[in-house]
Amino acid sequence: MSDNKKSPLVKILRVGLAGLGNVGAGTFKILEQNAKLIEQRTGTRIVVTAVCARNKTKDRGIDLSKVTWVETPESLIDLPDVDVIVEVMGGEGDPALSLVRGTLQKGKAVVTANKALLAYHGMELAELSAQNNAPLFYEAAVAGGIPIIKMLREGLAANRISGLYGIMNGTCNYILTTMEKTGRDFADVLNDAQNLGYAEADPTLDVGGGDSGHKLVLLSALSYGCQPDFQNLSVEGIDRLSADDIVIAGEFGARIKLIGQAVKLDDGRILQMVSPCLVPKTSPLAHVDDALNGILMHGDFVGPSFVEGRGAGEGPTASAIVADLMDLACLRTCGAIRPVFGAEPHDLKAAPSASRDDWTGEFYMRLVVHDRPGVIAEISPVLRDHKISIESLIQRGRSEDQPVNIVITTHETTGASLRQASEKIELLPNVLAAPLVLPILKI
Ligand SMILES: NC(=O)c1ccc[n+]([C@@H]2O[C@H](COP(=O)([O-])OP(=O)(O)OC[C@H]3O[C@@H](n4cnc5c(N)ncnc54)[C@H](OP(=O)(O)O)[C@@H]3O)[C@@H](O)[C@H]2O)c1
Fold first, then answer.
1. Smallest CA separation from ligand 1 atom 9, residue
2. Which residues of the chain, if any, have pLDDT below 50?
3. Going from the N-terminus, what domains does the chain have, and what CATH number goes with each?
């Protein structure tokens, strides 16, 4: 990657790349293919000088003949010709954790795409970054190619954010969009998505909502100046949704999307929740289809702001990594670093957190029941006892042998009332499964 005819004014930023998978190889390719453009825009030549992965002989479609290969990620830290580490191995623990820790402790910069690492260890790493004046960039960790970190940390920095709603997992959005287009059920579509390589062999982190949760806590910290806190998050995935839910939601003028939301309640607490929700078709989020990501934010002066784009994949994610490297190059030329979560770590307060119980609004509830006289009469008193009033009630199908779906939408109530009522309804003799309860958003 080296070009010896460089202007004496051009600086060099030397990169140690840990991980040469989709994102690592993609980063290498952009730095090589767009080298001139990057140099023009930053006044710095950004070159990979050393790399590490597990398998040295694997063909990755990149020429590694001019870079140093090291056997362990941590060996990158002390190499004299490495100014910044790009961590794109993944995983919340070692070796990613010790590599990032060790690099920051040495006062060197880190760029990472690793949301799991930051969701669990973000606070410790933000402190290390501040103590050692070592920048930690992570644009690629949330929503891939969409510059959402920059938007919150810089572009919208003058605003108080009151609510943030995001579709942040492309796999789930692809599955939900395909379920809607084809009328097929979750398991069937997931199977296809795995065969096509859109979903991991173990899809739990994606379809269970955990991956969206990792990203949400980072956006929440940036939006509200609070500590990233993965423990105080309500997470529910898309695995219990049926094709019927999607059709019925459509009849209510809504689409079902897996939404990560971080909302500031009137009492100052932050509600962080990942859940499939009914999103009105009039909302821009309802039109984020296939594997795309979209994020809607409300700032007190800017009003609503919406961004959409590719949230994963080699190109978009590597594009975000290289943008961070370019920011770092400019930073080295002109000065101070911004704190990791927008405010100095000692100013990040543990957010007083709210839970799904505190979510207030209308709900969608699907019950699977025996189609027998008196079923509604069993359910109604439970709803009444929890002060839940019904907006509409639909029964799908009529069969004495097969279970049928009853869908109820409610007037405004709380997550706590719905949870308590659901726990009782699940025990009724004609109810066959735990009710599926989805918030209906008005965004
Ligand atoms: N893929 C995306 O679209 C995307 C989007 C946003 C964020 N991210 C994040 O980016 C990171 C990387 O994702 P990816 O898709 O590029 O993963 P990947 O394709 O699985 O690549 C992981 C790389 O890390 C290397 N590696 C793993 N464990 C290692 C170890 N113990 N020592 C040395 N090298 C090790 C692997 O080496 P070998 O190749 O030799 O096995 C591989 O090159 C993850 O944090 C992920 O969450 C990915």
1. 113
2. 1-7
3. 11-147+315-347 (3.40.50.720), 148-310 (3.30.360.10), 359-440 (3.30.70.260)
